[in-house]
TrEMBL record:
<dbReference type="InterPro" id="IPR000757">
    <property type="entry name" value="Beta-glucanase-like"/>
</dbReference>
<protein>
    <recommendedName>
        <fullName>GH16 domain-containing protein</fullName>
    </recommendedName>
</protein>
<comment type="similarity">
    <text>Belongs to the glycosyl hydrolase 16 family.</text>
</comment>
<feature type="domain" description="GH16">
    <location>
        <begin position="45"/>
        <end position="254"/>
    </location>
</feature>
<feature type="signal peptide">
    <location>
        <begin position="1"/>
        <end position="21"/>
    </location>
</feature>
<dbReference type="InterPro" id="IPR013320">
    <property type="entry name" value="ConA-like_dom_sf"/>
</dbReference>
<keyword id="KW-0732">Signal</keyword>
Length: 254
């Protein structure tokens, strides 16, 4: 009887010790599993790339912060009105009214939102949206009435103006086409890099490609962004007899 009682007591104590050990093992396993789960999550978060939004710089012309005067002839003929930069040149002058960005930029897409008005018939006046490093590293949109000879070649009618998409050098390239007056347009120049690290320039109006040209240089040439209205001899037949203007709603780089 005593022996049986002793055996039963030993059996009960053994089962109790086994139960406690099992609980400890389960708790340790559960803790290890939870820790591994946290570590895996941390590792996955480290490996998962975080998408950075594309950098877009936009100037809305509520002011001229980050821009400076670049007028070459005459007085600075421009002002801001209701978030729009109005630029103009005077009749019977060779005014060259310009503003330029303070900073310089390289590859990317440059865009200008521009209103093209009626311009004086035969006037040597141009609305310009362009990139400038120096006289041999310059990419332009130039919009004006155009010489009569150029208008005839393009079969321009009364409400047409002429727009030139141009690389001034390295290499020289100029593409003329027609554009309707009294409308807003988005002009853009995209500078991409080819496998030789040279710029490939693409000129567009309202996302329609006008022309593309591979340039002889790359990002060692940085550009300032320009807005202008200038009286220039190449784009008309006589000194302007009227005041000509252009409107710039915004400029963008991305």
């Amino acid at each position: 009887m005593t022996k049986n009682y002793y055996k039963a007591a030993c059996l009960a104590i053994g089962m109790l010790l086994f139960s406690c050990a099992s609980e400890d093992m389960m708790e340790e396993t559960s803790t290890q599993t939870a820790t591994v789960g946290i570590n895996n999550t941390l590792e996955m978060s480290k490996k998962t790339p975080i998408k950075t939004p594309v950098n877009i710089l936009t100037w809305d012309f509520n002011d001229l912060n980050e821009w400076e005067d670049a007028t070459q002839a005459g007085v600075p003929n421009y002002y801001i009105e209701n978030g729009i930069l109005r630029m103009f040149t005077n009749a019977n002058t060779w005014d060259r009214t310009k503003v330029k960005s303070v900073a310089t930029y390289t590859s990317g897409t440059y865009s200008w939102r521009v209103y093209v008005p009626t311009m004086g018939v035969g006037d040597c006046a141009s609305i310009g949206a362009f990139l400038y490093n120096d006289d041999t590293h310059e990419l332009d949109f130039e919009i004006g009435y155009g010489k009569e000879s150029a208008r005839q070649e393009l079969n321009a009618v009364a409400d047409d103006l002429i727009v030139y998409a141009t690389s001034q050098a390295n290499p020289y390239h100029s593409f003329p086409t027609k554009i309707k007056r009294e409308q807003w347009y988005t002009l853009s120049i995209t500078l991409a890099l080819n496998n030789k690290k040279k710029y490939v320039a693409t000129w567009k109006i309202d996302n329609r490609i006008l022309t593309t040209k591979t340039l002889t240089y790359g990002t060692q040439k940085k550009f300032k962004i320009f807005c202008s209205v200038e009286n220039l001899s190449f784009i008309g037949d006589h000194i302007p007899t009227t005041q000509n203007y252009g409107l710039f709603d915004w400029v963008e780089f991305k």
